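Example 3.2
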Amino acid sequence: MIKNHFHFSILFVLALSVFIVSCTPTSVQKNNSSVTESHLSEPPRVLAVWSQVVGESSDNALTGLILPQVAMRFVVGANADPSVCSVFSVSIKKQKNTTWMYMPEIKLQPRINTDNPFNDITVCEVSVPDSLKTQWFAARLEYKGAVVRLDSKLVEGDTRQTVGKGFTSGKADNSFAMVYGPGSIGQRQKGEITAISIGDTGCRGLPKNSSARMMQACDEKSWPLSTIAESAAALNPDLVLHVGDYRYFLEEEVSTDSWLYWQKDFFPAAQPLLLEAPWVFGRGNHEMCQSGYFGRGYFQLFGTESENECVESLSPWFFDVAVGGLQSNNAPHRFVIIDTNDDKAKSLTRHYQNAINMTREPAGPKSVWWLTHIPAYDLLYYSGSFHTGDTGVRNALSDATTERGPLCLAGKCSPSLFLLGHQHLYQHLNFIDSNNNAIFPQHYIVGHGGVKVDMSSPDNLHQTCSYDGFSFNGTQANTVTDTRTEHGFVYWQRSASTVDLPLGWRPTLYNEYGDIQSHPTGNVERCNPM
């Protein structure tokens, strides 16, 4: 009797052990350590959260309208183990007015990058099932059933030069970690789709032995990205189009691509706008892979699923949007994103040729814009000389159009617009012939998003003039330019009333405080840049 009771006790203990193990929260193993909810005394600190369009880069996808795919990502610190991603969960809204739904099939995992420069934070990605990838309206991050709140304040006690002395702390701190998805694009404003264009947003800092052009204090007055982000977020856009150059600040004694500088140079200041709409993260020359640039951080944070390391030049990619959502097929529009981070890249001509294919796809939208960084054409003045654009980009574009044909015919251009940055000001260039017909796509340079602005001429903050130094396909252009050397952004609206406009959208220029700026009217003088 005692023997049988002993055997029963052993079996009971073994069964109880199996039950306890089966009920223990699962975790990802790394170096014999792991993170689970039960091991954490408080919620992991979420430093940043955003959603981003990842688009389509394959020519095989040219079969009509392409629904935008949107990824949700967030940053956990400090010194977070990659397994920390799995302790969070996600709830989504499938439509604007539906209730939040917990989605256990959604997986949260660390971004795996063989060239990851960050050793003190973890970048997590939300893996949405294929059935929802193009449809979810909004998503929120949760921990133990409660919605996570952001805590993006800067590292305390950092006294090196200007680091920590004036950088903007997180104005979105304590906000819910909730972002918008592809189902929201074209459905947040009745009867229209809206976008914010912004670029060159980082702060230069006060590096030693630098010219005056390279010197910029990083307080809110001299570096207004946080003010711009709040002003733009108040407009409730469907999309944010960033043309590149997120980072400028650096110091000699610390790795320039460290999380410390990404946090100080972008995320806390931009977070109010990151919460407001999916972003398109274009790539600028400051996101090159070479030492001293910030490409490794860019790919770890914003890279697409197909890249797991910093690459010299990305293939162009695209996505489509429409008023009322793409399923409505109401005033559809295509964005093509082209990587010009390196104006001497051997692949640049081929990339432009592929972009032309994406633009002229018969079943695709007739309204198309190109989003890229370095302008082939511009008009500005700095360092004692007059600049008219980048010859490397111009030559590559010329070679591509020689092969595939001009971008404008009979006064109609496709793409109708190049959305650009690189030059640190706002500039609109309209290339027309003597009969006021378009002979090249309009340029909007939106490099006035935070970095110290450059001058279009030695003594003008706002200059409107015409220039006759450019020609296209043998026709001399009368290039009407409107330039502002002050910070701000452009707000775009597309609706049934704008589809017949030259750009298909109506632009409104805002300064950093959200005040509308006037557009030029009437006759303009000839440009006198010197």
